[in-house]
Write a structure and sequence with these properties.
This protein has about 130 residues and is mostly helical. It has a domain of about 80 residues. About 45% of the residues lie in helices and about 10% in strands. The chain has a two-stranded antiparallel ribbon with strand order 1-2. Helix 2 packs antiparallel against helix 3. The longest helix has 12 residues. The N and C termini lie far apart (about 65 Å). The relative contact order is 0.08.
């Protein structure tokens, strides 16, 4: 088994806490979604899809056999994701013939993160 496949298997079969942490580093939304699923769901995915190697067909069969809550979460989180972070999702009036323009998210109740103060790295002076 190649190293990449061993790491992939380790992440998919990892305890929930580890898999959820790894989800933030996933390259694609469907990978992140899978890593946020309960371990039992991830285990059946590995067994029914990854161990078979048929790819798309096995993946589709696996998804169709999942409980409605799992299928719906895939639709909500992967197929129909919300607007990108930092946007309101409202479309401003587009320029004639141009693509729609996204308005920036305006949240007056949020203030920018305070900047950290620089740390004084000079050694303390000792009195003799």
């Amino acid at each position: 088994m190649a190293l990449h496949r061993q790491v992939e298997k380790a992440m998919i079969l990892a305890p929930d806490r580890v898999a959820r942490a790894a989800a933030s580093y996933a390259a694609r939304p469907e990978e992140a979604w899978m890593l946020r699923q309960p371990r039992a769901v991830r285990r059946t995915y590995w067994r029914d899809v990854m161990d078979h190697g048929n790819g798309g067909r096995d993946r589709e069969i696996w998804m169709l056999r999942q409980p409605e809550a799992v299928r719906e979460s895939y639709i909500f989180e992967v197929l129909e994701p919300g607007p990108p972070e930092g946007t309101s999702g409202h479309v401003a009036d587009p320029a004639p013939g141009g693509p729609p323009v996204q308005e920036p998210d305006t949240e007056p109740w949020r203030s920018p993160e305070p900047r950290a103060r620089p740390v004084d790295r000079a050694p303390a002076q000792r009195e003799p």
